[in-house]
Amino acid sequence: MVSGTAYSILLFAIAITLGLYLAKFSFKGITIGSTWILFVGIVMGHFGFVPNAKVLDFMKDFGLILFVYSIGLQVGPGFFSSFKNGGVKLNLLAVGLVLCAALTAFGIHLVSGESLQTMVGVMSGAVTNTPGLGAAQQTLLDSGGSSTDASTLASAYAVAYPVGVLGVLALLIILKSVFKVDLDREAREIESSSSADSVARRMHCAVSNPAIIGKCIKDVIGEEMRNEMVISRIMRGGEEFVPSQDTVLKEGDKVLIVTTQKHVDTIRIIFGEEVPMHLEDWIKGRKSIPQMKRLGITRSDLTGKKLSEILFKCQFTVSVTRVVRSGVELVAAPDLRVQVGDYLQVVGDKEGIEAIAKLVGNKASALDRPNLLPIFLGIALGVVFGCIPFTVPGIPQPIKLGLAGGPLIIAILISCFGPRAHITTYTTLSANMMIREIGISFFLAAVGLGAGKTFVSSLVGGGWWWILYGAVITIVPVLVITLLGRYVFKLNFFQICGLVAGGTTNPPVLAFAQNAYGSKYVSLNYATVYPLSMFMRVLTAQVMILLAMA
């Protein structure tokens, strides 16, 4: 029987190629994407096309590491900020969704007599969580389980996966009718409520407060408000200009302020009532037209420096409104530490913008070279961290985060706090997606090829019940949490869609909700709950395996 390295690589390439080809086909806009690789691998494994065992194990583990690490790098910059304001409520509901699924799986185990470790595989498929499957398999093997048991986990996952996708889609369609959702009204409601948290709002105020007349901007705006508003422009005597922190305010000045809805009343008290103006009014009479540009930080020596160190002491008449990192928009607070690859959204005059562009680099070619050091450093730290055992009360064996949890946590931490240690974690979004897709392709192919030998026998030997179990694990938690979110926490329908898609780590549901209901708020709420949900899914799967092995 052929079992060399070249033969093994050939099998992986064929499984991935066929799987990705099938992923191009969809039914009414719905597709399971790269999960087709898993099913192609199962078919190949069933007919005896199995790679070398050592190559199979390596590809599965390495693919899982690449996948979860790239996820951590992308979501890390906005991970902790997602807990602010409404994000706390959404994340608590997402944790409830995870725990409810685990309790449902455990309840089915008690009632049906199905082994708990098999139910972990069913649960991972029912919530479409591939890293959870990987963590469960590794924990099972580390705890003395056999490779056959690990294959059973993969078979249960594969059987329940389609139910996990279709069941959630069907629930959202049904709930839309049950809740009698008016999409236009829901959109208006969430726009008005979300503006209090993150959506920028322009204000046009006339300076009339005697307490601030004759004072410079830095004295008027305290430390707390400095992070919540930006004075973009001032109009004085028909002339419009971009102010600096030392600009003195005069009575009758008209100021253009960018802030959020929750600070509107405070700003009115500080400056004065709003005046009826439009952006077009600022064009009239200006000597030069302020520009808005996005400047890339490409100088490595700026990594770890505060935004105030770069800009405020330089006295440029330019306002920075946002900092974009790995596709995530961050508030341009003075104490925010930047890194290579960050983009500054700036507005100001041409000379000021050119001066800052020279200061930060702004050379796109400098970002073409991949920055591999933090990737492999993070993976190394993640593997070590994942191997450290820690005890949890009530669990007989110490828990290890493993090759799924360890790299995920380290990636989140290093992308969030790396700049403080002058560590550049920049990768382009396309490079991040490339690493992620390669990783998940390797992992799914390895799982499928390894499980194919026992898949049919497991299904015939009672595994068809896994479909029913998967449906219950999919439907019950989602139904409970969505009803709780709608009627108790008064969530908007778009918030519910994002919560369900992110809480079940289910990209096909996200794609369906966005295409069917046409709102950006679905993806925003998905991103809010996805990181914590992913971590909890991985941890819960490990804990349940340890309970099963006790």
Give the helix/strand layout.
Elements: H1 5-22, H2 36-46, H3 53-75, H4 86-112, H5 116-126, H6 130-142, H7 147-178, H8 183-194, E1 201-206, H9 217-220, H10 223-226, E2 230-236, E3 239-241, E4 254-259, H11 264-271, E5 291-296, H12 307-310, E6 318-325, E7 328-331, E8 343-348, H13 350-360, H14 373-386, H15 402-417, H16 429-463, H17 465-487, H18 493-503, H19 507-517, H20 521-549
Helix pairs in contact: 1-2, 2-16, 3-15, 3-16, 4-5, 4-17, 4-18, 4-20, 5-6, 5-7, 5-17, 5-20, 6-7, 6-15, 6-20, 7-16, 7-17, 7-19, 14-15, 18-19, 18-20
Please provide a written account of the structure.
By secondary structure, this protein is α+β, with helices and mostly antiparallel strands. The protein is 58% helix and 8% strand. It is built from 20 helices and eight strands. The strands form two sheets. It has a four-stranded antiparallel β-sheet, covered by helices on one side. A four-stranded antiparallel β-sheet has the order 5-8-6-7. A hairpin with a 2-residue loop joins β2 and β3. α1 (5-22) packs across α2 (36-46).
